[in-house]
Every structure is written in C-alpha cells, then in structure tokens.
Design a protein that fits this description.
The structure holds two protein chains of two kinds.
Chain A: H1 3-12, H2 30-54, H3 62-81, H4 87-112, H5 116-133, H6 137-157, H7 162-176, H8 186-205, H9 221-245, H10 253-268, H11 275-287, H12 291-307, H13 316-339
Helix pairs in contact in A: 2-4, 3-4, 4-5, 5-6, 6-7, 6-8, 7-8, 7-9, 7-11, 8-11, 8-12, 9-10, 9-11, 11-12
Chain B: H1 3-12, H2 21-28, H3 34-62, H4 70-91, H5 96-120, H6 126-144, H7 147-168, H8 178-200, H9 209-232, H10 238-259, H11 263-286, H12 293-322
Helix pairs in contact in B: 1-2, 3-5, 4-5, 5-6, 6-7, 7-8, 8-9, 9-10, 9-11, 10-11, 11-12
Classes of the chains: A mainly alpha, B mainly alpha.
Amino acid sequence: MRAEAIWRRLCDANLVCGEMPSPDTEAAHWPIRLLLGFAGWLAALLLFGFFALAIDDLYDNAIGMMTLGAALCGAATLLFRAPRSQIFVQQLGLAFALAGQAALWWGVYQWYDGNRVGAHLSVVAIELALVWLMPNHLHRILAALAAGCFFYLALSGLGVPGMAAVCYALLFVLLWLNESQWLDRAALFEPVGIALALLLLVVSVGVDPIGFGHRSSAPPAWTGVLTDIATGMIFIGAITKLLQQTETPWRSGASIAALAGAVLLAVLCAPAPGMLPALLVLLVGFARGHRFIWVLGMLALIGYSSHYYYSLEYTLLAKSAVLAVTGIALLLARAVMHRLGGAHA
Amino acid sequence: MNTRDAVLAWLHAGAIDRNDAERALRAAGALPDRASWRRFIDRLLLWLGVVLLAAALIFFFAYNWTALGRYLRFGIAEAALLVAVGAAWKLGLERTSGKAALFAAALCVGALLALVGQTYQTGADPWQLFFSWTLAILPWCAIGRMPALWMLWVALLNISLVAYHDATRSLFAWMFDTRELLWLLLALNTLALTLWDAAATRIAWLHVRWPVRLLVTAIAGIVTALGLWAVLEWRNGSLAAIGAWVALSAAAVWRYRFRTRDLYILSVGALAAIVILTGALGNLLYGRGNADAGGLLFMALAVIGMTAAAAVWLRGVMQESTE
C-alpha cells in the first residue's frame, strides 16, 4: 500500500491530521539493512585484523585488550550519536563497535582465566549494556544476538542448555505480545525482539553453525522433559494472549478449538522440539504484522522438516509416526474449521 | 516501505500520538483482522499438514522396514500417491487445497522412486533418481499453475546436476571440477530465471516475487563464488568469470532497476560487487605475501565506503518507488 493511502486511512480514523510528512528516507528498507549488516561484519573483520597485526603485543594483556575494546566501543557510540550522521559514519561506527566487542571478549576471557561461566555471563552483561547505549538498529540486533549466544554458553556450562530456548521463547512472547507498551520506544525494543526470534530458532530448530552446542557431557534427561513442558506452556500461553487480544469470547467455539489445538500441538510436537518454537515465531510475527519475523518462522518450519531427518534422538520410524500424526491432526483441524463455517482464529 | 514501517516512522516523527500507536497500526491495516486470521490459519493448517504427511512418508521409507515386506511397502507408497492425485483431481487445481494435494503427490513420486531403488537395488546413481523424479512430475508442473511446484522442479534439477557431478567426478575429474559445476549451475539457474521473467509478462500466476528472488540469490551466490575465485587465483577462465559477473550485474540493473524495481535483488547485487571488489583489493595488496596492517585498515575503509555508496544509491531507488 502506498504511503498516501495509509495516511488517508489514519486521517479517516482521526489519528492524524494535516499534510502527510515526507517519507523518511533515513529509515532503511530491510534489504538495505541486510546489505549493511553483512558488509559491516566484513569491515569489522578487516578492522579487527588490522588491530590484531598492529598491536600483537597486546594479546596476552587482558586489561590492554579490554581497554582497546572499550575505546573502540566508545568511539562507535560517538559516531552513532553524531548529529545528522551519514551512512558512511554509521557503517564506520558499526565496524568499530564489532571490532571493539571482539577485543572486549578476548580481554574478558583472559581476565577470567579458567572460569568460563563467569566470563560468559560478564559478556552477556556487556552486550546488553551496549544494546542500551548504542543507538543503531543493526548493532542492537547483533549485540542482542551476541548476548543470547553467550547466555546459551553459560547455561551449557551449567549443564542446562535447553533452558536457553525456554528463556528466549518466554522473552520473545512477552516482548512481542506487549508491543503496544513499547511502540514509542521501538528503536530500542524491536531489534531485541528480532534477535530473540533468531536465537529461539537457531537454538530450538537445531542449526548449530559454530558448534556452540558442543558439550563435554550430555545434559541430564530431566532438562529435556522440562524444556518440552515449558515450551508447550509458553505456546499455550501465547495462544491465550492472542485470543484475548483479538477479543474472541472465551466460551466461543473458536476459542475452545484454538486452545484445544494448542494443547494437542504442544503434546504432539514434543518429540520434534523445533516445531513449536518455529510455529510460535510464525504466529506471533503474523499477529504483530511483522513480515520479517513471520517469514523467518515459515523458513524455520521448512528447514526443520528436513533437519529433523538427521536428528538422532529417535528412529526414522518414530519420527515418521510423529510427523504423520501431526499432519493428520492439522488436516482434521482444518476440516473441522470448515465444517463449523470458518471458525475464527 | 510497508504499512507497519510507515506507521512507526510517523510515530517516531511525532505525527501520531504515542497513546494512539496501537490503534494506528490497526486502522492502517498493519495488524491482521479476523478475516486475515481465518485465511492465514486455513493456509497454515493445509500446507503444514500436507508437507508433514509427505515428509512422514519419506521418513517411513528411509527407515527401510524390511519386516513389512516389499508388496505392502509398495502398496503404501502407491496408495499415498493415489490418494494425493485423487484429492487433487476431486478438489480441482483452482482451489488451494487441490494445489496442495498435487504438491504432495509430487513429493510422493520421489518416495516411490526411492523405494524402487531401495527394494530392487537397481544400481542406479542418485542423480538418476532425482532426474527421473524431475521428469515424472514435469506434466504436473505444467498443469498445476503453482510457483512452489516449479521451484521444487528447479531444485530437483539442481540436485540432479550436483549428484551427476559427484557420480562422474572420479572418472572424468579432468572434465568436471568444481568450477565447471558452478558454471553449469549458473547456466541452469540463469536460464530458469530468464524463462520465468519472460513468461511472467504473459501469465498472471507467475507474478510472485519470491521465486525470482530465490533464483537471483542462487545466481548471485554462484557468480560471486566464481568471481572471487577468479580475482584470488587468476588463470584461464578467470576473465570469463569476471565477464559473466559484469554481464549479469548489468542485466540485473537493467531489469530490476529500470524495467521494474526490486530493492532486494539490487541489494544482493551490490553485496556481490562489494565482496568481489574486496577480494580483488585484498589480492592486490597481499597477493605477494607482504602482511601489512595498514592494508587491512585500507580494505576496511574501502568496504565501508562501497557499502555507504551502495546504500545511498539504494535509498535513492527506494525514494523513487515511494514517490
């Protein structure tokens, strides 16, 4: 829809008045953000390489590396906050910030020496502080992603990696389904919400690109059961909240069907742990009209269907049964929905 | 700019009161109403159900449950195929449910062919399975009028080509090395994109953007790999790779900047250019093995400069689109 048509709708609803403000050319479209993100990461890699070669004496010095990292992050903050800063300055800031964070991580890990969990949690705190301090959309996504990854590593070190997915799912639902509370501060919270969706999918759907799921010993079995139960509860909670937000009466057929379907899906999808988080991202993204997030959920669903083939937890026969029963249940639910005359969602 | 971004931009600019933000999103149509929810849930249940059932069938045959006996296994595979085709016939290809059934039938053909290979140990290479699958579903692609089915067909053709390369490499390694495979994949996907774009001018159901973007992403990935390889290790054929990259970039700008506007495709093209030019710069600075820190700083600044230039250009294109 064109901007003029949207403005007219808002005028009709008495939410705006007067002339439409000119389109904000500074706000980047998502493909441009994608380009800036990839290129910013490449520039940061080169910048970090420059510092690595230029000051190789500093490697063994934890304080030195942390000071360098803090200085680069400080410079990046100034660049991001510069009035009327142009794209070149913003990109320079992004490269400085990412290279600075790499130096900070290095310093923190040397400082903690053998205490891995302590180091992971310190980096989480640093990254969250940077999300707060640096007013750049892309940087906020990347820093929130880093915070989530180190949080996962910390929980892995404590033997409960599965709890990370539960925490991401809970925060994701709480954040997005209460979006109306922070819409005026979207610049801060939206990137965190996007990062949470990505983290939830990476950890639950089972894509482990840098092997950070590697552990010396398998986590206890009870954590898996607890994760499944907690994820199921969050899914049911999200459906309940969505019904409330769409003002669907609790005693209506639609509400009963939606809640029964949510409980059934939570039970059926327990042996396929990536399915429910992907569905959660898809549904919440659609509910908030956030195309990037619901497309992410859809891609995760497709990706998980093929990734599930290689999961070693169950035999192919058991996985086939899980998929078949879930597939039949979904088609039956659709048939019931049509029979009831297109029940409300 | 989509509806949601437009409303948030006006909210940020102070044109919308912060207490009215949620109402504004709803009034602008950025949030789904009951009808949108109904349509969305309907499609989700249908497509997810169909894909999960087809996946279940493939997993089932991959398990190779020999105790079941070959006749029963063939019976299951053929019954599933018949049910899917029957459902497509009964529901009709005009309806989404009919299309979903045809898509499931196309997946069932793969499961059936795999079962034939597994049961009779035909000695066929994997590429023959995928290529037979591609040929078998071609008539359904022709009648289905479904972009997703055509994309499945193109994906199977790509897999057949890669599997063929893997199967023949030991014998004809001199003929088929990885670069030749990339050239073949580039030719195949470029041909698919050209045909799609040409047909889309006449056929309404081809007017969807995602298949074009998917093909362009694949083409950009392949041509970037070839281009990067060419600038990092100059040898026979490098000039052809650079030529292909330049020609495809020019064609993309002509097609997706001047004929139609697609910001995603232009961004992918810009990213490919940044990667290749950075590779060329790196080779120029470090090709002779002189490790110098200043060179990396120069490259970092060059990447930032190129990205900023690309972003300014893309924003200009975006602004033209909104005017």
